[in-house]
Amino acid sequence: MKSVYILIGGRVQGVGFRYFAQYKAEELQITGWVLNTPEGKVEIEAEGEQNNLATFIEWLKIGPARAVVQTFSVSDIFPSRQFKNFTIR
């Protein structure tokens, strides 16, 4: 298991990004959470098997159809959070 913190900027609010992230996370058995920040970004903590997490990250770099991802950062989190599911906050 691996845990990461992701921060995404651009046109990422008002385009269904959180729902897109939740759908992909559930599809890939990723747990954690996603939220919109007051600064207009999307913040994610995600945990899962390394291959599934890598696939999830690649999907997030593209985002849903109406999104325009301009900035993207990923940082490892230690220790793992051991989430039970993936939620929208």
Overview of this protein structure:
The chain is α+β, with helices and mostly antiparallel strands and 89 residues long. The chain has a single domain (2-88), classed as Alpha-Beta Plaits (2-Layer Sandwich), CATH 3.30.70. The protein is built from 2 helices and 5 strands; from the N terminus they run βαββαββ. A hairpin with a 5-residue loop joins strand 2 and strand 3 (42-48).
Low-confidence stretches: none
The CATH class is identified as Alpha Beta
Task: State the oligomer.
Answer: single chain
Strand content: 35-45%
Give a short synopsis of this structure.
By secondary structure, the protein is of the alpha+beta class.
Topology:
Elements: E1 2-11, H1 17-27, E2 31-36, E3 42-48, H2 50-62, E4 68-76, E5 86-88
Parallel strand pairs: 2-5
Antiparallel strand pairs: 1-3, 1-4, 2-3
Keywords:
89 residues, 39% strand, single chain, alpha+beta, Alpha-Beta Plaits, 5-stranded mixed β-sheet
